[in-house]
Amino acid sequence: MRDPLAEFDDLFNRMGSLLETTFGTSPTAPGMPWTPAATGMAWSPLADFSETDDAYLIEVDLPGVKREDIDIEMTDRELVISGEIKERERTGTMRRAMRRTGRFEYRTMLPGEISTEEIDATLRDGVLTVKVPKAETTKPRRIEITSGE
Question: Which class is domain 4-20+43-87+101-138?
């Protein structure tokens, strides 16, 4: 049975990503670029959330982020991935800054019961992959049909 609140959470995350992609660099005042870091807000990295028979997989794009700069927390069924991308010190004049910096946070509600003791996270090629195993009770079970004779 799917949790309807999880579907709303997914819709909310998608709408937030769409708004951020569309308006994330739009100016709030003439000549002033808007960035979440400038307002103290955390931005949400791009992520894919998929489900297999035995686990939920979350893949988050975090290019250039070190393992020690990422925090992953699990509370009940909510997964929170957060951290900070610090702005690099540069010499010369910055002509255009398109890469995001500052605090980031990705949140999602998992739609079913999970096994928190076996959660696995790997960071490879700028992609954080979090595998959250399903609890045994939520895994699909094949039922054999026997002859009624």
Answer: mainly beta
